[in-house]
Write a structure and sequence with these properties.
The chain is of the alpha+beta class. It is built from 3 helices and 6 strands; from the N terminus they run βββααβββα. The protein has helices spanning 22-25, 29-40, 72-79, and strands at 2-6, 9-12, 16-21, 44-46, 54-58, 65-68. Strand 5 and strand 6 form a beta hairpin. The longest helix is centred in the middle third of the chain and has 12 residues, at 29-40. The relative contact order is 0.25.
Length: 89
C-alpha cells in the first residue's frame, strides 16, 4: 500500500518507521538534533510549499525524512494504521 504525503510525493507504507506531529515532537532537543542531522546528511525531503505540520521517517536503503503539510493524524488515518480504533466522545 502507498501513502500520499502531499504535492506529488507517494511512499510505501511498509517503509514508514513513524509519523510525527511537527509542533509537539520538536519540543524535544533529541528530535531537533535528529532532524538537523538528517538535513545535514541531505536525507530531508520537503514536500510542501505551505506551513509544515508533520514529518515522516522511513527506513530501508533510501531512508529519508519527509516534511508534509498534512497533519500526522490525517496521515495515520490514510495509512490504515488506526482503522480499527473506535473514536468516542
Amino acid at each position: 500500500m502507498y501513502l500520499h504525503l502531499g504535492q506529488d510525493c507517494i511512499i510505501r507504507t511498509k517503509d514508514i518507521l513513524g509519523i510525527f506531529d511537527l509542533d509537539s515532537s520538536t519540543l524535544s532537543k533529541h528530535t531537533r538534533d535528529y532532524l538537523a542531522r538528517a538535513e545535514k546528511e541531505k536525507r530531508v525531503v520537503n514536500v510542501t510549499t505551505e506551513l509544515p505540520k508533520s514529518f515522516i521517517v522511513t527506513t530501508g536503503e533510501n531512508a529519508k525524512v519527509y516534511i508534509s503539510q498534512i497533519s500526522a493524524a490525517t496521515l495515520k488515518k490514510r495509512s490504515g494504521y488506526i482503522d480499527d480504533i473506535a473514536i468516542t466522545k
